[in-house]
Design goal:
Blueprint: H1 7-52, H2 61-74, H3 82-95, H4 100-107, H5 111-121, H6 125-138, H7 142-150, H8 166-169, H9 172-181, E1 185-190, H10 199-216, E2 221-232, E3 235-245, E4 250-256, H11 264-279, E5 289-294, H12 299-306, E6 313-321, H13 324-345
Parallel strand pairs: 1-6, 4-5, 5-6
Antiparallel strand pairs: 2-3, 3-4
Length: 346
């Protein structure tokens, strides 16, 4: 029979379970990376074999086709198709004379990613290094990698902030000022969490922390309120936090998310800004600005999501210092209690 825990214990258990899942997923990711590395070593060595035998589409087509048939018979699930074998040769041919750093970075990427880099960037080592580094850093899917290449992110100026559209939605001077005021990442320090808490309580503490953080920046923020209600056409819309910035002369709407960034957040913020400009912006004030604060974001996804919107919107992530010691103690205690329960049941 399932044990029904008191409310406080139940909330603690859910938090511990969530953290345990994070540990397991992290371990699974490490295993997956090890598998990818071993698989790419196989691709490299087979590619080297074909390269050193000087096989090409003219003189080696029959050999590679026969090799594909035999290898697929022996290893049916290892991707030994004719096209894949030629891709392995191309992989070795393309990178065996490259810088060792580039070889290492490319060698830990998934096979689909490697093929996209070779197909779309040809002999541009610098560009391949750029995208390989960011794929490793950000964990880009193959689709995100392809989109980043299409947007030629490696050619963009380091001064360009892919996390907002201020340059295209605000006058030049105001856009430059907004980029000074708003950061790409906010480091919030300790949140004061020493035991697992419910999601709503976490959100409440984050709101308070972010409010104080922005006010202490000393850059002209005036706090108006949280859960600020905008009524239009018989419906209420609530902005998580609303500020006014004296220098920018703009209302600043902040939408807080305790999860990673999702593209649909931009559409929601666009509605808030339209309502603020329509209902509350003064005649001598500049357009309202929206900031979506997330626990995590990917700049490629953010840039794609912002494309086509004409309201000034930025996306930033916040970093918290997690009390690892207390969390470890909680998990250790939960494991101890669990083991004791198992022993008693036997």
């Amino acid at each position: 029979m399932e044990q029904i825990l008191p409310f406080s214990e139940e909330s603690q258990y859910k938090e511990i379970l969530q953290q345990a899942v994070v540990v397991i997923e992290s371990s699974r990711s490490k295993v997956a990376r090890a598998i990818v590395g071993a698989s790419n070593e196989m691709h490299w060595r087979i590619g080297q074999l074909l390269y050193e035998r000087k096989l090409d589409s003219k003189y080696g087509d029959g050999i590679v086709k026969r090799l594909s048939v035999d290898l697929k018979t022996m290893y049916p699930k290892m991707g030994m198709s004719v096209s894949n074998l030629w891709a392995m040769k191309k992989y070795y041919d393309r990178f065996h004379l490259s810088d060792s750093k580039l070889q290492r970075c490319v060698g830990v990427l998934p096979w689909r990613h490697i093929n996209q880099l070779m197909a779309k960037l040809k002999d541009d080592d610098d560009a391949i290094q750029y995208y390989a580094d960011r794929t490793i850093e950000k964990g880009w899917s193959c689709d995100l990698l392809v989109n980043a290449i299409k947007m030629e992110m490696h050619k963009q100026s380091p001064d360009k902030n892919a996390s907002n559209n201020f340059a295209s939605t605000l006058p030049t001077i105001q856009a430059a000022y907004a980029n000074e005021v708003f950061k790409d990442t906010y480091y919030m320090g300790f949140l004061g969490v020493t035991e697992p808490i419910l999601e709503l309580e976490l959100e409440r503490r984050l709101v308070e922390k972010i409010k104080q953080f922005l006010l202490e920046l000393g850059q002209g923020f005036t706090y108006i309120g949280n859960q600020h209600t905008l009524n239009y056409n018989g419906k209420d819309y609530r902005v998580d936090m609303l500020f006014f910035h004296r220098g920018l002369r703009s209302l600043i709407a902040i939408d807080l998310k305790i999860s990673e960034f999702k593209p649909e957040y931009v559409g929601k913020m666009n509605v808030y800004l339209s309502l603020l400009d329509r209902l509350e912006k003064g005649k001598d004030e500049n357009p309202s600005i929206g900031i979506i604060l997330c626990a995590e974001k990917d700049n490629v996804e953010v840039e794609l999501a912002l494309d086509g919107f004409n309201k000034p919107i930025g996306v930033a992530e916040y970093k918290l210092i997690v009390p690892q010691k207390e969390l470890k103690q909680l998990i250790t205690e939960e494991i101890r209690v669990f083991n004791e329960e198992i022993l008693r049941s036997h």
